[in-house]
Sequence to fold (358 residues):
Amino acid sequence: MTNVALVALACGLIIGLGAIGACIGIGIMGGKFIEASARQPELMNSLQTKMFLLAGLIDAAFLIGVGIAMMFAFANPFAG
Amino acid sequence: MAAETAADGAAHAPTASEYIVHHLGHLSTKHQDKIVDFSIINLDTVFWSVLMGVVGLSLMIYAARRATAGVPGRFQAFVEMIVEMVNDQAKNIVHGDRSFIAPLALTVFVWVFLMNSLDFLPVDLFAGIFRLFGADPHFRIVPTADLNGTLGMAVGVLALMLYYNVKIKGLGGFIHELFCAPFGAHPALWIANLGLNIIEFVAKTVSLGMRLFGNMYAGELVFLLIALLGSTATWWGFGMHIVAGSIWAIFHILIVLLQAFIFMMLTLVYIGQAHEGH
Fold:
């Protein structure tokens, strides 16, 4: 396998595996939020603020991975 | 031969990867060969971050000067909404003297939001402007899509964390906490405690900087890739460019706001943690 092929595989793995974790995490958190809103609708607004904050934190590692994968795809520092 | 000279005279249209690599280069003082090189300055990052800081400060100063105690105008009401939101968050998170920390959080929020929103300018706008003057340099607009910009801010937050730790707990108290929390005060645990505390500080700083960088860099790259769809010069390519570009731009508005909010909240949380003991 050539260098280019390995870099492409690596980028795919980084983004794919990161997406699994991020999506499952947000799914679980969103489910809990909807459940909590159904139990106590008066807390919905304050919980929504916290939910968006947590969504950003959960997505953090995944997006860092996407940034690194994009960097390897287009501006590979190890190439040439 | 004639075809050769004709081709040489015509402008060389870039390939897809050349287009993207050109748009990913910074206007820096020297070409960067190594991964870490502290002698290079990215002039475009410095320029745009300073400019956005000046714009944000001017807006806030203007709002403060024109503030009335009577019925507020729309701009004053808007600024009051932001200030009140930041103040509420600071009140909930930081238990101590907030007279410096709350304005700091407001500055961080407004500054990061303005720098992030530079991502809404068209990708080729400044390349086109520079071509009018005959130059074709590498130029990146968004300072928070540069790892140097975001890590610089995160290191600033780290400096504030250390400052408040020393100020609230005293230098002796802070060093005691470094060696004795969270496992316990037994001398055999000192190395483990120190290691864990150092890792905690480093992880907080690096994650704060890289989270903002990853979001903005990935966002900008998706804009570039969507722009490449339009470059296929087919009817479906052009249509997909408009549709996908609109959807991504609308989603990116949420991301820009959210990342600025997260950066501000985490700054408050980290400084608030310095106020409490373990």
